[in-house]
Write a structure and sequence with these properties.
The chain is an alpha+beta fold. The protein is built from 7 helices and 9 strands, in the order αβααβββααααβββββ. Strand 5 and strand 6 form a beta hairpin. Bound molecules: zinc ion.
Length: 197
Amino acid sequence: MEEEIWKKAKSNAADILQNNEWVKWVHEGTEPATTQAEKDLRIVWEALSRKKHCAMCMNLNGCCFPRNNMPQNPLHNNCHYKLKPISEITVTAECGKDKFEEYIFVEEKSKGKKQLFEGCGYGIMDSKWLKQEFERQAKEKYEKGNFTLNKLDDYGQRINITIELPRKDKIGTLKLTVGWLVYPDGVIKMVTAFGGK
Ligand SMILES: [Zn+2]
């Protein structure tokens, strides 16, 4: 009997480790910025208020992270963030439609990425599939807390997510470190160019 209780306690502990608690960063008194334009506006406000209002804090408002993989709390002295536990997170990963068609596969803009993709057998006609696949993998990994924190700046928290693609030219995997910017309520948007591995 005692053994059963012990077993149960151990499995509960394992569950807790796996389902690490998610929290929403709430900066009371400001509306979360849900678009690039709104993030820009927060940066203007900071300047207009002579730094009384902090763009970084305003742009992190509403963003969600697992407790074991989140920005340092508090962010600065007199920071008045509240971390609100949330029971679940529904992630939307957005990779701009034009990222591949109008950027990565365009020689002058791609900074070598065109060669990287083409070298693995991908071309401009795969743009739609690549966008969907990037979004699918990023959603899945962010939901599991499987990302690394990158730079935190006035625009908010940037994270890196590893995207893996099957090579078409030979057996193997193309691994890419892709940068995303965290938006409120489980939204992440692909921001950067990325490095191949
Ligand atoms: Zn602040």
